[in-house]
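Reminder: ligand-aware prediction takes two inputs, not one.
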Amino acid sequence: MNDTANERADQPRANGRFAGRTVLITGAAGDIGRATAVRLAGDGAHVVLADIADGIETTAAMCADVNAAAEPATVAFDVTHEIDVQRAFEDLSAQGITADLLFNNAGYQGDFENVVDYDATDFRRVLEINVTGVFVVMKWFARTLIATGRPGAIVNTASMAHGGAPNMAAYSASKAAVVALTKTAAKDLAPASIRVNSVSPAFIGPGHMWDRQVELQAGTPSQYFSDEPDEVAAQMIAAVPLRRYGSLDEVAAAVQFLLSDDASYITAFDIQVSGGAT
Ligand SMILES: NC(=O)c1ccc[n+]([C@@H]2O[C@H](COP(=O)([O-])OP(=O)(O)OC[C@H]3O[C@@H](n4cnc5c(N)ncnc54)[C@H](O)[C@@H]3O)[C@@H](O)[C@H]2O)c1
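Here is what comes back for the chain with nicotinamide-adenine-dinucleotide:
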């Protein structure tokens, strides 16, 4: 393929599968949230972009670029502050915006330390963002949607770290909790016709989390990784049967499928976007 063909192949298809749907995305200023927002906007969705970081406006501009009809809205809240989350949903409702789809994706990796050295304050912070935050946003999304009587779907971002990644005690525990929380929410929300699934990415890049984990694993003594970042990156890739890290858009594609009506009979499921890494 020439460069133009490559560029065209990389564009999300504007086939309108999400026309008339409104998706709220948390962590929308980050790498995976942004890639997913652009993909869903390109597929016809209205997007509501949430984060505490400034980058949501950039994501909004990118969504409008792929599809002028996406009409991106932005909302700033910390997922750990329930009152702010509640107000954000109430404000959106007052503006006539009710999301029927949720990509519940904001997250924090935390420190990299052996469990004997792990700081309890950081441990609590990771669980607060990755577990309590996911729960709180899901709760207010569902309450708001149920009040309208419409069906919907949720995808929570877990991680392959749910199996227990070295030096990542808090993150691994938090992502295992997201998988369990997803299954409970799927049961609780099934009577309201709201499906709840999760995605578990493994090594995804390029991006902030990939760079950070390579650098911090190299800086944290362990029998599992070298102290040289380049070697750590190679060790991580060697653990993946497909022998590469996944792209941001490959995570977005799994989220797009789970949120779409193509997944209408799938709930309480975790899709591993891992290149075969377990
Ligand atoms: N990138 C990877 O390799 C990878 C692998 C597995 C899972 N994940 C998960 O994917 C999700 C997105 O990660 P990413 O790679 O895009 O990382 P990222 O750091 O680029 O994005 C995370 C976003 O979450 C936001 N956020 C953090 N705390 C918040 C809070 N309290 N309130 C509101 N927003 C908050 C940040 O501002 C940031 O924009 C996370 O849940 C992460 O754990 C990422």
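Residues 1-14 have pLDDT under 50 and may be disordered. The two ends are 33 Å apart (CA to CA). We will return to this case in the review session.
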